[in-house]
Design brief:
Radius of gyration: 44 Å
Structural class: mainly alpha
Helix content: 40-55%
Number of helices: 2
Largest sheet: none
Distance between the termini: 110 Å
Strand content: under 5%
Length: 142
């Protein structure tokens, strides 16, 4: 198991280095121009070749480590058996309803609810007094 952890850490470092090398490169295939003059330690062409080779090596290492880690993970977990210790052997018992009343106490249904007072009988229609003409309304004479 310690080999698996070691290789996982190595893969994380390779991945970080790969991201860094890719971000340093120019977008059109050129490399990082270290120094302004071609007579410097590394010319722009030399930096581009180095970064291209570094990207290829790091990408190959990343893919290789991914395959090795996948193989180790499969071999480490293939010998395990499924744990059935939590498997129930009897019939499933449904969980009690949390909103249900306690056992032995009858639930208050519509028939057992408090009766409401009876509605009063409708009263006879009330006759209204004849409406007087409004003096401010148009058409009313004074």
């Amino acid at each position: 198991m310690s080999l698996f952890i070691f290789l996982t850490v190595i893969q994380a470092l390779v991945a970080a280095a790969l991201v860094g090398v890719i971000l340093i490169q120019k977008s059109e295939g050129g490399g990082l121009g270290v120094g302004g003059s071609p007579a410097g330690f590394m010319s722009a062409r030399g930096a581009a070749d180095f970064l291209t080779r570094a990207t290829t090596v790091l990408a190959t290492a990343f893919v290789g480590l991914s395959i090795v880690l996948a193989a180790l993970a499969v071999s480490a977990t293939s010998h395990r058996e499924i744990d059935t210790s939590l498997q129930r052997t009897g019939p499933a018992v449904p969980a009690p309803d949390p909103l249900a009343p306690p056992q032995g106490v009858p639930a208050a249904g519509p028939a057992q609810a408090q009766p409401e007072p009876a509605a009063p009988a409708p009263a006879a229609p009330v006759k209204s007094a004849p409406a007087k003409a409004d003096p401010l309304a148009g058409g009313a004479k004074q």
